[in-house]
Design brief:
Layout (H helix, E strand, L loop, with lengths): L6 E6 L2 E6 L7 E4 L7 H12 E7 L8 H22 L4 E6 L7 E2 L1 H13 L5 E6 L3 H9 L3 E6 L10 H4 L7 E7 L11 H13 L3 E5 L37 E6 L12 E4 L2 H14 L5 H13 L8 H15 L5 E2 L8 E6 L5 H12 L4 E2 L10 E5 L5 H15 L1
Parallel strand pairs: 4-5, 7-8, 7-9, 9-10, 10-11
Antiparallel strand pairs: 1-2, 2-3, 6-12, 11-12, 13-14, 14-16, 15-16
Length: about 400
């Protein structure tokens, strides 16, 4: 960064742009423009106040020239402002790598989760997981020497995380708590008031929140009012980054795989305070440097086209969800407490003491794929995870015909 000039002026959409720095921190991006009251002026003021730009790295590995890169980022920033308003984020650190990712471009959610854990967790640290949990979170914590601690959630409560379920599992060794909303595997959406209370209580104790928001866009119209979602339309779940002073103890990880149907492109992101991002980048540089340039370009195109793309197939998911619920009701051994997000049903099976054996037997005899609940922690035993994210209504109906025959 020391080789960068004190200021660079370029033009974006016929508007002068200055990249300025005073030597005491990251350069700031300012846009100067035309007349008061217009949309551009509003955009310029908000952009200057809310974006800090970290200079692009690896100049010998495909990074664009600084002026071109700044033009590229400032153009994209316009598309992010609506998202920032939704999350109530006041300032974002944009990290450049190759053509530049926003926040920190990663290799999908699990790379972001692993990077977060490696940055903030030391061997022996305890990390509380609300259970049923996403199994990869448990594996990541164990892989770096952390100690996963389960905080079981109740089916009777719709598996919704509550502070009262988390607090008893905190000790002097607790370093972080992992939240996943909407949840994989249950589809439970953390209520806004519970999200705020949990973040604040943990902040007061110096404990970090790892918020996995992979399924942020997947919330159903019949979501309960207490989740903080507007009834009658598709909307997003409450984000931990919408809590006041979230930077003190929140790290958000997410992916473009689900919201944009880009699973194979392997691009995710991490959102955190600058002090966390700066350390995370050192670890990322030693592992993967950055997501592939072609993947970053593909994600950029998706974001430009429609940040709310996932909402466009909300109605289809609701139809599949209804078909799945009807299928569950055909078997006396199956019971589902409907949840409000994701595209999963976490279904309890009467008299099931070994979900691993049950899922294997269903696959062998009925040729239906289910995921054993025990995979998601001790609170998942006796359950099966059924997914409706990548199947048609007709395929769901056929699956339940087979399951009805299997269970008798």
């Amino acid at each position: 960064m020391s080789s960068m000039p004190e200021s660079i002026r370029i033009t974006v959409r016929d508007t002068p742009v200055d990249l300025l720095r005073d030597g005491s921190g990251p350069p700031l991006l300012f846009l100067h423009g035309a007349g008061a009251g217009g949309r551009w002026l509003t955009f310029q003021e908000r952009l200057a106040e809310r974006f800090t730009v970290l200079a692009p790295s690896h100049p010998g590995h495909g990074a664009s020239p600084v002026a071109e890169w700044i033009e590229h980022i400032s153009d994209l920033a316009f598309h992010y402002l609506d998202l920032l308003d939704t999350l109530q984020i006041e300032r974002v650190h944009l990290v450049g790598a190759s053509f530049g990712g926003w926040i920190a471009a990663e290799m999908a959610t699990m790379a972001s989760s692993r990077l977060t854990s490696m940055t903030l967790i030391d061997p022996g640290d305890e990390v509380v997981l609300t259970t049923p949990y996403f199994v990869n979170h448990d594996m990541t914590i164990r892989a770096i020497g952390g100690v996963p601690i389960e905080a079981p959630l109740r089916e009777a409560d719709g598996f919704k995380p509550r502070w009262e379920a988390i607090e008893p599992h905190l000790t002097g060794r607790t370093r972080a708590v992992v939240l996943c909303s909407p949840s994989n595997p249950t589809g439970a959406v953390t209520a806004r008031d519970q999200m705020e209370q949990t973040v604040r209580e943990l902040s007061s104790r110096g404990i970090t929140v790892f918020s996995d928001e992979t399924y942020l866009h997947f919330v159903h119209r019949d979501c309960p009012a207490e989740a903080g979602i507007n009834r009658g339309r598709a909307d997003d779940a409450a984000s931990a980054a919408a809590v006041d002073d979230w930077r003190d103890n929140v790290v958000v990880v997410g992916t473009f795989s689900k919201s944009f149907g880009m699973t194979g492109w392997r691009v995710g992101y991490m959102l955190a305070d600058q002090r966390v991002c700066e350390q995370a980048l050192k670890i990322q540089d030693a592992m993967i440097i950055c997501a592939p340039t072609i993947s970053q370009i593909a994600v950029e195109a998706a974001i430009r086209d429609d940040w709310n793309y996932a909402h466009t197939f909300h109605d289809e998911l609701v139809e599949r969800r209804a078909a799945l619920q009807q299928g569950i009701e055909t078997s006396a051994r199956l019971h589902w407490t409907p949840t409000s997000g994701g595209f999963f049903a976490f279904v309890s099976v009467a008299d099931c003491a070994d979900s691993m054996a049950l899922a294997s037997d269903i696959l062998d005899r009925a040729h239906v794929v289910t995921i054993p609940g025990a995979t998601f922690g001790s609170a998942g035993e006796g359950f099966l995870r059924l997914s409706y994210g990548a199947v048609s209504v007709e395929q769901l109906q056929e699956a339940f015909r087979r399951l009805q025959k299997y269970f008798g």
